[in-house]
Structure formats: structure tokens, C-alpha cells
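PROTEIN DATA CARD
Card holder: acylphosphatase
Chain length: 100
Origin: Solanum tuberosum
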Amino acid sequence: MSDLNSTSNLKTVRAVIKGRVQGVFYRDWTVENAKELGLKGWVRNRRDGSVEALFSGSLEKVQEMEQRCRRGPPSAIVTGLDVVPCDDDPGSGFERKQTA
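Structure generated from the sequence above:
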């Protein structure tokens, strides 16, 4: 039996998604999926052509979002996904931010 009721069940990660992920509705798709999963955080394009996102929520939901990000929307081609634990404040909802 796992301890899913402990406070350690909350997780915040920063993800960088690489590949053909700009100009293919990746950010809008990310906002839609993150809201569906009840996650907090944000998503934005980066000048190097990648997409960066911050996801915060239950361990299970964050892991599900990571899996979804590996696939992305239909017209995206994801070639890499780097995920690292993060302590940043995710805010109160999930939003699309300006390019970093």
C-alpha cells in the first residue's frame, strides 16, 4: 500500500520540450491538458525553438502530463523532454506566458 495521502504527493517540475514544438499549437495544447489534469503552472516558447513549462500538482497528474508532453499535439514532433524538480511558485492556475 502506498502513502498517496502524504504531503510528499505534491510535485513541481520544470520541463523543456524539444523538437518541432513551436507553431504547432503546442502551448495551447499544453494549457488545455494541464487544466484538464488540474495542474498549476505555465508554458512558454523559448528563443532556441523549444517549449518550457512548469507543472505543479499531484505526483500522478504531473507524471501523466510528462507522458502527454512526450507525444504532444498531432502536428508536433517531440525529439526530447528534459524534466527537473523545481521549487518555483506555480501560481494559482495554468497560463501561457510570453517567450523567454
